[in-house]
Each structure stands twice: as structure tokens, then as C-alpha cells.
């Protein structure tokens, strides 16, 4: 094939791909071989290797296969820091640890990601109560992995790992004549699940407060950048005069409204039941809600300022008009208490509408 023919063939391929893209056709992509290893496959290899070791074969065929699967598994999920392997069946529990991606907000260190892996159905096939209890630990572990971070996550996952291995070890024992019965173990497991769930709720609530506060700081920084850009840009183009009283009053009102909103949240966080947020909606959602809080306070403050300037609301009569200190105080109170700001704004429209009178039902005959 000549160089010109190769060039035309490549060009026809690109034209065909472009035409398929315009028509919405899906191009068949050859499937790549799956080289990942699940935890169940690793558990099975470990069990077969264990049989060879117990049979006196130290370097059997499964030894190399187990090491190969272990390398692939740890490359994907991280180093195995805790593990339990059953002696008589292919079942086990493991806790892995890996370093996450570097985030822009945390350049100095990365998150440590922990994950609990279980494969116990082979050993608990004839113990349905134990299997059900082990499966009940699984959603708790998922919640802990998704919501908690750092110390609280490590504590909860190690707690779950210890309880799961305790239950699996009871099933995997070779001598059934022990003073501890299955009912005793299951009762202990239910108690442990209740304690872990309670700990998860407290830790999740505290984590949500921290994430919400960080979101407020981010929202405040974004608001400050916007106000500074607007002031500098307006002054540059001659639209605003920074020394004019109306200009710095408006910007001061917005800033004091955001400050009041932040202080309001901080005072409610200091109380035991003063601040509540559903932490299971996710860290991003909680952070986004926290970022909106200063903006809400600033908008309430601006609305009250405009209502006062337009004489729709009369609070205090002052000779010579109101100054910046008066509006800054009102703006701070508007951001601090949304309820009071709503009451004042409702007075602009004549208050809330009176509720409709209930329709009297005819008396039964």
C-alpha cells in the first residue's frame, strides 16, 4: 500500500467516524480484558492456597496465583491493614486503606480512604441467622465510609470489623462444645450494632457541623470577592464613588447581613440541640447549604435596607435621617434572625393574609 493510499484510508476512517457521530451511531469499541480482582476472588485464592499449605506444599500453584490477585486487589483498593480468613471455608473479612486524590482545598495532605470488604456466604450458607447479622453490618459500614472521615471513620470501621470477625469466628470454630451459645453472640451483636449506629449518628452530626461551617467560610469568601470586584470595577468605570455615603452604606449593609448570618449559625452550633442538618444528604450538599447562608443573610439585609430607604417600613424617627450605623445594625439583626426579618418584610405587604374561616359542616340528622 502506497503512502497516498494509506493517507486516503485514514481520511476515510475519520470521515466515517464524523458521519457516525452526526447520525448518533455508536461505534463498536473492542472490549478490554478485565484485569480487576474482587474480594471474593481473593478469598477463594487464599482458601485454596491455605489447603496447599496444610497439605505440606509451601510453594504450590495457588501461592503464586494468590500473590498475583493480592497485588491487583491492593493496587485498586489499597493496602490490607486488617484481615480475618476462615480456616475451613473460603470466607473472610478485610479492611483496606489507601490514599485518595489530592484536593485543591487540602493541598498539604490527602484524605485516607478506608473500606471494609466481606465475602462470607460460603461459610454462613448453613447459618442463616449469622449470615443475616453479617449482612446487617454491611449498610452500616457503607454509611460510615460515605459520611465519616479521619479518626471517627477509623474507629467505626475497626469496630465493625472486630464485631464481624467475632461473629464469623464463632461460626468457623472447630469445637462446637463451647459455653457461649449462638443466641448469646447474636444478642451481643445487636447491642454492638446499636452502639455503632449511635456513635455514627453523633459523629455524623459533628462532621456535618464542621462541613457546614467550612461551606459558610467559602460562601463568605465568594461574597467578599464579588463585592470587592463590584466596588473596584464600579469605581474604575466611574459608575460608583467609594466615598459616597449611599455606596459604602449598601456594601456595609451586605457585609453586616452576612456577618449576622454567620454569628447566628455559630451560636446555634454551640447549643446541644440548637443546630440540626441531615448529614446523610452528602458532604457536598451540606457544604453547598453552608455556602448559601451568608448570601441569604446579605439578601435579607439588603431587602430591609431598601424597604427602610423607600419609607415602606418606619422603625425609629431620627432627626436628619438615619446614618450608616443604624442601617448596619438593622442589617446585622436581619442576617442574625431570619424570623424577625420576615416579620418586618411582611409588614410591607400589610402582613400575612388571614386564614380562611373553616366551613361549618351541617349537623348530622
Describe this structure in words.
This protein is mostly helical. It has 2 domains: 140 residues, no CATH class; 140 residues, no CATH class. 62% of the residues lie in helices and 6% in strands. The chain is built from 10 helices and 3 strands; from the N terminus they run H-H-H-E-E-E-H-H-H-H-H-H-H. Strands 1-2-3 form a 3-stranded antiparallel beta sheet, sandwiched between helices. Strand 1 and strand 2 form a beta hairpin. Helix 2 runs antiparallel to helix 3, helix 6 packs antiparallel against helix 7 and helix 9 packs across helix 10. The longest helix has 55 residues.
Keywords for this structure?
365 residues, mainly alpha, 3-stranded antiparallel β-sheet, 62% helix, 2 domains
Amino acid at each position: 500500500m502506497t503512502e497516498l493510499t494509506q493517507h486516503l484510508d485514514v481520511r476515510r476512517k475519520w470521515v466515517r467516524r464524523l458521519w457516525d457521530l452526526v447520525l448518533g451511531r455508536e461505534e463498536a469499541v473492542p472490549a478490554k480484558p478485565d484485569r480487576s480482582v474482587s474480594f471474593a476472588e481473593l478469598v477463594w485464592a487464599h482458601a485454596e492456597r491455605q489447603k496447599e499449605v496444610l497439605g505440606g506444599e509451601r510453594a504450590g500453584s495457588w501461592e503464586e496465583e494468590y500473590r498475583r490477585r493480592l497485588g491487583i486487589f491492593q493496587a485498586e483498593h489499597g493496602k490490607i491493614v486488617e484481615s480475618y480468613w476462615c480456616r475451613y471455608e473460603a470466607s473472610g473479612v478485610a479492611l483496606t486503606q489507601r490514599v485518595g486524590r489530592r484536593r485543591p482545598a487540602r493541598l498539604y495532605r490527602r484524605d485516607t480512604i478506608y473500606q471494609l470488604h466481606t465475602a462470607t456466604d460460603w461459610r454462613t450458607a448453613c447459618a442463616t441467622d449469622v449470615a443475616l447479622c453479617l449482612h446487617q453490618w454491611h449498610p452500616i459500614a457503607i454509611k460510615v465510609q460515605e459520611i465519616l472521615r479521619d479518626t471517627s471513620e477509623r474507629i467505626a470501621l475497626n469496630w465493625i470489623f472486630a464485631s464481624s470477625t467475632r461473629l464469623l469466628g464463632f461460626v468457623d470454630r472447630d469445637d462446637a462444645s463451647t459455653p457461649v451459645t449462638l443466641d448469646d453472640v447474636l444478642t451481643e451483636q445487636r447491642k454492638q450494632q446499636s452502639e455503632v449506629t449511635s456513635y455514627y449518628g453523633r459523629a455524623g452530626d459533628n462532621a456535618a457541623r464542621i462541613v457546614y461551617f467550612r461551606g459558610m467560610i467559602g460562601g463568605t469568601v465568594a461574597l467578599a470577592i464579588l463585592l470587592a470586584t463590584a466596588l473596584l470595577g464600579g469605581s474604575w468605570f466611574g459608575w460608583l464613588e467609594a466615598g459616597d455615603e449611599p455606596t459604602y452604606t449598601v456594601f456595609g449593609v451586605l457585609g453586616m447581613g452576612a456577618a449576622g448570618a454567620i454569628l447566628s449559625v455559630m451560636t446555634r452550633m454551640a447549643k446541644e440541640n440548637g443546630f440540626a442538618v441531615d448529614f446523610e444528604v452528602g458532604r457536598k450538599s451540606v457544604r453547598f447549604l453552608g455556602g448559601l447562608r451568608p448570601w441569604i443573610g446579605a439578601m435579607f439585609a439588603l431587602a430591609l435596607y431598601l424597604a427602610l430607604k423607600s419609607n415602606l417600613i418606619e422603625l425609629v424617627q431620627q432627626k436628619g435621617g438615619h446614618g450608616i450605623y443604624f442601617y448596619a445594625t438593622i442589617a446585622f439583626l436581619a442576617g442574625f434572625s431570619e424570623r424577625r426579618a420576615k416579620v418586618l418584610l411582611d409588614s410591607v405587604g400589610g402582613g400575612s393574609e388571614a386564614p380562611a374561616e373553616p366551613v361549618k359542616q351541617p349537623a348530622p340528622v
